[in-house]
């Protein structure tokens, strides 16, 4: 544990997509602030996704990272497309920790391969949008006053013509549409949870240095002028997306916001769509306030 005052001591967090990337970073930072962790990840391939999904070994590494910081964690394999699997993972954590205070609906993919027409659309929407709803469905009954729900959206998904450009196919459209719907989903749900003092906010990263960004299909979308672009080739194009001259943020940059939103420091912040985007939305030309 780090810091003299742990803002989340005594709280329990349920995190989807926790085996690596932003999910693992969230698990580590929340644990460092005193939270006990319930971690879940699919740990198997999704055929329409062009990059390797997290493995059981990745999930085990998350466990090691949390425990090395003095944290307690229950980790289970589970697919957000299945309420039954999510409920089983949550039950294992509740049996161990006895309560639930924080929900990080973080799991998401960028589907791109169509094994048959529309599969990337189906997988993208099922995981990026319906998976969030399933997470809400299994956790709602266990949340009490001062609980915090944090959904992972995407600034890139909210910029027209970026992720949903033809180079990324039906799956790119699924990703963009799902993330846009989550922004409104957050506002609607927040209004109805507010009387119970349960907060819900959606966080929107720009390019983030994870597997979702780092694969050949994305490099090609950003560098269509090249036949086989590498990460190094794509970095100048990544950098052009942000107003600040950086190619991407790190998962830990999002985790700092997650800790704030999970803590009582944000006790009156709800229904917000918060970007950590280095000015990319402003640079895109979207009107102020959108």
TrEMBL record:
Alphabetical list of PANTHER family matching this protein: DEHYDROGENASES, SHORT CHAIN (PTHR24321), ESTRADIOL 17-BETA-DEHYDROGENASE 8-RELATED (PTHR24321:SF8)
Assigned protein family: Belongs to the short-chain dehydrogenases/reductases (SDR) family.
Record-given protein name: 3-ketoacyl-ACP reductase
NCBIfam families, sorted: PRK12826.1-3, SDR_subfam_1
Domain of life of the organism encoding this protein: Bacteria
One Pfam family named in its UniProt record: adh_short_C2
Source species: Mycobacterium paraffinicum
Single GO term (MF): oxidoreductase activity
This protein's UniProt keywords: NAD, Oxidoreductase
Keyword Transferase set for record: no
